[in-house]
Amino acid sequence: MSSSTVITNIAALVTNDPSLGDHSPLGLVRDAAVAVEGDRIVWTGESSKAPATDNRVDAGGRAVLPGFVDSHSHLLFGGDRTEEFNARMSGRPYSAGGIRTTVAATRAASDAELEAGLVRYLAEALRQGTTTFETKSGYGLTTADESRALRVAARHTDEVTFLGAHIVAPELADDPAAYVGLVTGEMLDACAPHARWIDVFCEQGAFDGDQARAILTAGKAKGLHPRIHANQLSQGPGVRLAVELDAASADHCTHLTDADVDALANSRTVATLLPGAEFSTRAPWPDARRLLDAGATVALSTDCNPGSSFTSSVPFCIALAVRDMGMTPDEAVWSATAGGAAALRRDDVGRLTPGAYADLTLLDAPSHVHLAYRPGVPLVAGVWRRGVRVH
Ligand SMILES: [Zn+2]
Q: Structural domains in the chain?
């Protein structure tokens, strides 16, 4: 029989259940407690009504929220791109660089090196409160290199995404149709058993709307669910394709037409915003306020990757979203927890109600608002994943 634990004396508990507490979307309960048995939440409510359990933890008048659900990262890569970032931020030209640099380094890395990098970045994310993460292939771009990246990823998370269509492989740069044929054929056959999702970078210079539709449709036929890198650098067909194909998420959503916003608001496709990318490229911010006011569901994620957003910190993204994207602190925290869960079509994470996984983050602060109010401060004082304290 698994042991039970109650965490009491929580000043502010974010449940993401609007039937609880203040009945806001965060379902904020003051002077709260949460009870865990095995790997699940079994009870949530006011501290004075907490059930008897085997163990008791005193939160010391601090805040507890669901572990962050980071629904977009690229953690299977070799090398880094420090010099490229330094040149960009220093206003110096840098001609090599780009995704191709990481593709070369990733192909040259051993399986053990790839896995060691993944483990390192996951540990880093966990210390910052992330308990569920998605990660993608996309730096191998051959059948063997894409499938090995996914095999490595699947040892560490259920949320694995096949992104063979990140860019056209360098050796087929003159024949993109042949590369799309590879991605939808032999590469897909080898990768589908190791992934839940299929993704495509739908953008000028990567894959156009017709290519993206062909790739995602082929993936669906193999049992993978679509998600799309859409409208990051320019307006284009990505968001409307995401909605058309019932993709779980359209990611980036930086350059949107009114029709794109309407399409998202009238679908269950989540708009996942990734402000680390705009930060690291000095690009204009996505307009979260416009999406929220239209009624779209918004997720916040890191896009952790060595080229355009080398942060594993969801709290950093929350602070950016509040400062620069028009989100309230409550909205940003919801988007980084329940929003991320929606972007992965999960209802067992991103909330602290009976039946959900006991994935919790304890802040060294009396309120979740401090995640935006105290940017850059390491506020995560404790992390439980599946009922086990891991930090
Ligand atoms: Zn990405």
A: 4-67+350-389 (2.30.40.10), 68-343 (3.20.20.140)
